[in-house]
Design goal:
single chain; about 300 residues; 10 helices; Rossmann fold; 4-stranded antiparallel beta sheet; disordered N terminus; alpha/beta; binds zinc ion
Length: about 300
């Protein structure tokens, strides 16, 4: 077992970085967890992590095979991403029902960071033609097997051909992982068919739940969550890429989770809470819908 698997400390060099939204270097500290700092950009109000790994190192070091079956999911990755496949599918079905009135009629959909393709499988059943992009080698392999090689590409937006257009481009839990979110949104704008829309889901650092938990908030995972948006910064990022927002809010961001996930994450809030909840697992491991309203989902169309 590598040192990182034991402690989840970074093994690639970290570099100080400017604000990933506006490039500004004026900032004030929100809090420090060495070697990481969580900063508030005083120009655009984005909360971001610095120092961080270089772009190439991120893919090799953070999104390797252990990301999806992470020994330390509270700090990085998922405990058992593939084992939770049915919960993930049901989560997407539920979100789509909630957002249906804002989405285009079934056509072509591109899911950026499609992981194992769970969302795309749900969309295919709903009549959409599907395409996925997945930079993690491990998950690209799984998506490739499930969806077919012609429907998933290994990489990010740079894999798209000029003139390739989609009716819907989705970023589920992706923007916060990207070293340059504005660039990805601008690329999405250039690959949208007339009347097409983008859908973005990311966490809300200004939500009451995030404020209540402070630095114990579960979305502070410094190796992978490089930027933390709120309503204002997400709106600015989306509009800055040439979109007009049709809806944005926390209502349809909930997830189906299992009790053991809740118990494990509760340790981040308080070890006492974890100890109080853990005995419930003796009764089984039921799944239930959970929405702490600390994420935002936005649908936007081209201006
Ligand atoms: Zn900024």
């Amino acid at each position: 077992m590598s040192v990182r698997q034991l402690s989840d400390s970074p093994s690639a060099p970290l570099r100080d970085t400017a604000c990933p939204m506006c490039g500004g270097t004026q900032r004030r500290s929100r809090f420090q967890e060495p070697p990481f700092g969580v900063w508030l950009c005083t120009s655009c109000d984005l909360t971001y992590v610095s120092p961080r790994m270089a772009d190439d190192d991120l893919l090799q070091e953070v999104y390797d095979a252990t990301y999806w079956t992470s020994p330390t999911p509270r700090l990085r990755g998922y405990r058992d991403y593939l084992g939770d496949g049915e919960l993930i599918a049901e989560t997407f079905r539920r979100r789509l029902r909630g957002l249906a009135q804002h989405l285009p009629q079934p056509g072509t959909v591109l899911d950026v960071g499609c992981a194992a393709g769970g969302f795309l499988q749900v969309m295919e059943k709903a009549g959409w033609q599907i395409q996925g992009l997945e930079p993690s080698e491990t998950m690209h392999r799984v998506a490739n097997e499930r969806l077919g090689p012609e429907r998933v590409r290994a990489g990010g937006m740079e894999c798209l051909k000029e003139g390739e257009l989609f009716d819907l481009i989705t970023f589920w839990d992706v923007l916060e992982h990207l070293p340059q979110p504005p660039e990805a949104l601008a690329q999405a704008a250039s690959h949208l068919a007339p009347g097409g829309k983008i859908l973005v889901l990311t966490q809300n650092v200004a939500s009451p739940f995030a404020r209540l938990l402070g630095r114990r908030w579960q979305h502070y995972k410094h190796l992978e969550h490089l930027a933390h948006f709120h309503r204002g910064t997400l709106k600015a990022a989306i509009e800055g890429a040439g979109f007009s927002i049709e809806t944005m809010g926390p209502r349809h961001t909930g997830k189906l989770i299992r009790l053991d996930f809740l118990v494990e994450r509760s340790a981040r809030i308080s070890p006492l809470l974890e100890r109080a909840l853990r005995p419930l697992l003796r009764l089984g491991n039921p799944s239930f819908y959970c929405n702490p309203m600390d994420e935002l989902v936005a649908v936007a169309s081209r201006c």
